[in-house]
Every structure is written in structure tokens, then in C-alpha cells.
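INPUT
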Amino acid sequence: MARIVVALGGNALQANPKDTSAEAQLVTCHETSKAIVDLIEDGHEVIIAHGNGPQVGQFVATYETANAANEGIPVMPFPECGAMSQGYIGYHLQQAIREEMRERKINKEVAAIVTQVVVDENDPGFKNPTKPVGSFFTEEQAKKLMAEKGYTMKEDAGRGWRRVVASPMPKAVVEEVIVKTLVEAGHVVITVGGGGVPVIEKNGKLEGVPAVIDKDLASERIAELLNADELVILTAVEQIAINFNKPDQKNLKDLSVAEAYKYIEEGHFAPGSMLPKVKAALMFAESKPGRKAIVTSLERAREALKGLTGTIIAQ
Amino acid sequence: MARIVVALGGNALQANPKDTSAEAQLVTCHETSKAIVDLIEDGHEVIIAHGNGPQVGQFVATYETANAANEGIPVMPFPECGAMSQGYIGYHLQQAIREEMRERKINKEVAAIVTQVVVDENDPGFKNPTKPVGSFFTEEQAKKLMAEKGYTMKEDAGRGWRRVVASPMPKAVVEEVIVKTLVEAGHVVITVGGGGVPVIEKNGKLEGVPAVIDKDLASERIAELLNADELVILTAVEQIAINFNKPDQKNLKDLSVAEAYKYIEEGHFAPGSMLPKVKAALMFAESKPGRKAIVTSLERAREALKGLTGTIIAQ
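OUTPUT
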């Protein structure tokens, strides 16, 4: 029996990028819950973290569209959109996981916790925001938004202008003790949704900031704080590979910290895709002897935890 | 020291109905938190429930406006809007309450729990939905929505057509054990936001339904489940009155269950305003000997709990 933080990727929440409706998301969450409850059934203590990229993007676009049509509808600030996504996705996941547990006669409770994650206001990410969010605008509209709202906006590969926000490192989880209390009481907890609502600490006060915290890094953070045994990062592939998509692609069963650094150096992992996952996995594996990170697909999570597949990153 | 469920009304979240922005709501939540933390400082175990009427109304109107401008933006279903409002309001309240506690050196934790509340699918409310939500439509648009989406829509006093949803009785709180675990560990919990996300139970499975559960009744339900000592219903006035707004208005310090029934019969309490609060208070006072309900204003909550003001409803 291990304490496990499972980081769910976007495709575990929205299987079909063409159908971004809540109805479709709920169906996908039911599928996802089967793999999650497999781990609970195997006796593990499971904490679930999840992304929110498509959902928050949709919220932002919805508010921008509604505000353009009717100025009386105020645009929702970015941190609040993150909190809303935790309610939205948390509701779907907790309903689906509970149903799957009840079908298997597992008598545990599950709940989503609205979770704030502290970032450093001096994080270099704030000086050069790079994460695009929301709709495309014309240059004229973009200049107006930058002047009126203080947004940072960038031209996006000829497709128009988009708002960009920072992607700072997670430092602390404000609701850490709440999560710990529930985990230690044997409950299943959904937390740091979308990487957490990003807040900075100013004179001991928390303040929401427009930023996107990488959900794998936030998962790594909460995994350390909860003294988890394993961090399971779920993605589209069963194993990490070197020479990915080349004739000599080689899938990795075990990846030592030293090898991981070497492969990163050699450019084997795509930035914005496998690279941040490997980095989060590495960070966890290095944080304390005995801790290991597993990168695998949702479908293979159960087998991977039994050591049968996936890539295990350990010291 | 008592265990107290505090039901916050809409004006504790949005003080100025003309400024419905998130920024204004956060300022109001900081003010509200002072009164809440007074109770925590006095040694009480506090569980917070809150309404979400204006917020969910705004979400629905935002989606309707965005969808009208761009059909590619799917309309968010009603239960999901409720879950989003729990994330949105919960984030503001937990941030503000935490800050107020830290300023007073109170070392407790606080978190909002995404909370589902079970209603009976045969509740008479579903046969005759009466609670209006969202924007006004023309008769033609309304007929299209009724045909396409199965909405119930009603003409609203010459102002146009609006969607109406049911207002069923709360039966059970799905996350009851989660809330209990946190309360017993000494944490401050925000739950049943907006009366809870309404779900029905079908063959053991939960399913979200378009409905609004009265937040005072949901607060009463969770107060019973948590075996609370007191249910504090906050409203715009300091005390319940008979002959309200008449020359012979009489404010009530104590209200027995028998008197409450008599005054209800005599029509002293306005439906949709004081009446549902008196009914929720009565239900709690009658549920077990020793339990009492207090109806007062946010500003007077601390004094009311000391027996100095407010209206106390007890057996």
C-alpha cells in the first residue's frame, strides 16, 4: 500500500477536443475514474491532481465573447476562472469516482478541495509571460486591452494576438493541512486542480495573480508535502521514450536520475510536452530516498504501479 | 463553545448589486470574514454555508450571451454552474477568512468543499418549477429553447420569458463525512454553497439536475447532519419582526416553535424573504431538544451568539 499522487492530463478530462461540452467531459470523467478506482481498489491512498487548460481557456473565451456582446457582463479575472474550473472539474471527478467506488463496494469518500498554490512574486516567469490563454484578437483590440487592463499580449504565429500569462514555480499549497487531514482519514482527495489557483504572498496576505502553474509541478509539490511514496504522471503514452517517433525509438522501463539529466541534455524530450513531465518526475525522485515517479498512460496506471509497465524514475 | 452552521445571504457576498464584478465580491468577502472570524475567535466551531443566486444568474447570462454571439461556445448546464460558483465564492471566502484568522493569530485552516446535495426526483418542486434564472428572452426564443433544450420557461410579469427551475427540498449531503472529518479536526469548512449542487439518486448513481436548493434549508440539513448546536441564519435585519414595516412592528428576541407556527399562519413573514428563513430555523429547533436557531444580521452575529440580540428560535 502506497500513498500516491496521480496527475491527470487534459485528455483524461476531455477526450474529444471537438466536443468541449460539460456533458462530454462527464462521460470522459467516468472512464477516467475506472483507472483511478483501480488504484484505490489495490489498496493505495490516492490523491488526484488535474489540469484545466481547455476548461479555463473556454471560460476566458466565454467571458471575452459575452463582454464583447454586452459590456454589462464583467470579465472574470484569471485566478477566479481557475477556482471555477476546480469546482467544475472537481464536481465531475468526485461524482464519477464515488459512483465507481460504490459499484465496487469501496466505502470511501471523495471530495474536491478548492486549492490555492503560492508562487513567488519575483518568479522570473512574471517578467516574461509565455502561456497563451483565451481568444485571438486584432492588433487594435490587443493594444486596447493592454492599455485598459494591463494584460500582456503577444502575436501568435500569424493567427492574431492573444493574452499571455506567467507560468511560475509552485512554492506552497495553502490548503496543505486540509488535504493531509482528509488523506489521513482515508478519504480520496482531488486537489491543486489546474495546478492550483495561483496566489502570491504579500505581507502575509494572499492575492490571486494571472498565471498558470504547471499541473505536473503542482502535483510534485503536493506529493512532497504529503510525503507520498509515488508520483504518477499520466500522459498519452505508456512509457517515456528516447528518440521518440524515430526509427530507433526506445521505450524506457527504468530511468535513473542521472540518465534523465543526460537525456534532457541530449534533447530527447519535447518542451511543453514530455520535458515538463520528466522534470517534475525527476524533482520528486530526487526529493527523498525511496520516492519514485512513474510516467505512463491512464489505461496502464494499474499495471505500472505493479511494476509491469510505465517508466519508473528513481534515484 | 458551540458547533455552529452560519448561513450567509447574498448581501454578505455582493454588497452592491450594481457592481457584480469579482473584484467587488472579494472586497465584500473580506468584510464578511470579520464577522465570521469573530465567532471563531470566540471559540466556536464554524461551518459556513452561502447563497449563490446573483453569481449563478450571472454565469447563466454569460453563457447565454456568449452562445448567442458564437454557437461554438457550449452553454454550461445548470448543476455545473452551481459547482463553478462553489469554486468561485469558496475561493474568495477561504482566502478572506484565512487572512482574517492570521491577523488575529488564529492558527486554524479553512477550505471550501465542492458539495453535492441529494434531492428527491419526485419532489413536487420538479412538477412546477418556479425559480427564475438567467436572461430574459422573447416568446419566439423561449419556444425554441423549450423545444430544443427541454427547458421550462415562463413569462415574467411582462418583462419577457425566463427559464424557471425547481426548488426541491434537500435530503442528504453527499460530502457529509468529508465535512465532518474536517470539522472534527478543528478546521473551518465552507460547504453546501448555493444550497449545494443538486443531484438526484437513480439506482445508486448521482445525476445533476437543474434546480436551486434554498441555501437556508441546505444549511439546516448540514447542521442536523453535523449535530450542530446552533444554526445562524444571517439576513438584512437584526431581528425577526411581526407586523414588519407597520406602525406596530414588534421585534422578537425569543420565538418559540409554537409562536412561530402561529405567526406563520397569521401571515407575518413574507414568502421568498423571511418566511423560508423562519421555516428553516423552525425545522432545526424542532429536530432535537437543545438545538436553537438564530436569525440576525451579519453585523450582529457575535452579539446574537452571546444572547444580546437577534431572534432565537427554540423549542
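end of record. Chain A has nine helices and 17 strands.
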